[in-house]
Write a structure and sequence with these properties.
single chain; 186 residues; Arc Repressor Mutant, subunit A; Tetracycline Repressor, domain 2
C-alpha cells in the first residue's frame, strides 16, 4: 500500500475522474477510489472531508473543462461565429464527457454564485452573448442561449428525439437564436 502522506488532492481527483468517466457517478465511491489508489478510505478524508467535497471538486473540474473548450472555440472569431462555435464545442463536450457534464446539471438548491469555475463559465457565456447583442450584461439573452444548449443536450441524452433524431434542429434553433439576439441593422 502507498503511504497516505504521498497521496495528493490532485492524484485523488485524477483517479476520481477516471472512475467517473468509466462508470458514472454511481461508480464513484470512497471505497473504490481508495482501492484504486492503493490506500485506506480514511486516507482520502484528509484531502476531501467527504464525498460531497470530492464531487464539488469534480464539478469545478467539469466547469473548467467546458470553459476552456468554449473559450478555445470562440477565440479570434466574430461575435456570431464565436457563439456558433461555442455552441458546437458545448455539444461536443457533453458528448465526449457525459458523466462530467452530468455533474454540471445535477440538482442542487439555489445558492448565490460565488467566485469559482462555475461563475467563470457563466461570465464567458455572458461575454460571448453580450458581444452579439451589444449589451455586455445581457443576462436574459445569456439565459436563453444557455437554456437552449442545456435543453438540447438533455433531450439528446434522454433519447427525446426518438429514432428519427433531431433532423437539423440544433442548427436551425441555434441560427434562429443568434438572429434573434443580433441587434437590427439600419
Amino acid at each position: 500500500m502507498v503511504y497516505p502522506a504521498k497521496l495528493s488532492p490532485e492524484a485523488i481527483l485524477q483517479t476520481a475522474l477516471d472512475l467517473l468517466e468509466g462508470g458514472g457517478e454511481g461508480g464513484l465511491n470512497m471505497r473504490s477510489l481508495a482501492e484504486r489508489l492503493g490506500v485506506r478510505p480514511s486516507s482520502l478524508y484528509r484531502h476531501y472531508p467527504d464525498r460531497a467535497a470530492l464531487v464539488a471538486a469534480l464539478e469545478d473540474h467539469a466547469a473548467l473543462g467546458l470553459h476552456e473548450r468554449l473559450r478555445e472555440a470562440a477565440q479570434s472569431r466574430r461575435p456570431g461565429e464565436a457563439l456558433r462555435a461555442a455552441a458546437h464545442a458545448y455539444l461536443d463536450y457533453s458528448r465526449t464527457h457525459p458523466h462530467l457534464y452530468g455533474l454540471l446539471l445535477a440538482p442542487r438548491p439555489p445558492a448565490p454564485a460565488g467566485p469559482g469555475p462555475g461563475k467563470d463559465l457563466w461570465n464567458l457565456v455572458l461575454r460571448l452573448v453580450g458581444a452579439v447583442t451589444g449589451d455586455a450584461d445581457d443576462t436574459a439573452a445569456a439565459v436563453a442561449y444557455w437554456a437552449f444548449l442545456h435543453g438540447y443536450v438533455q433531450l439528446e441524452r434522454s433519447g427525446g428525439f426518438g429514432l428519427s433524431g433531431p433532423r437539423g434542429g440544433f442548427e436551425r434553433g441555434l441560427e434562429a437564436l443568434i438572429r434573434g439576439l443580433s441587434p437590427p441593422f439600419p
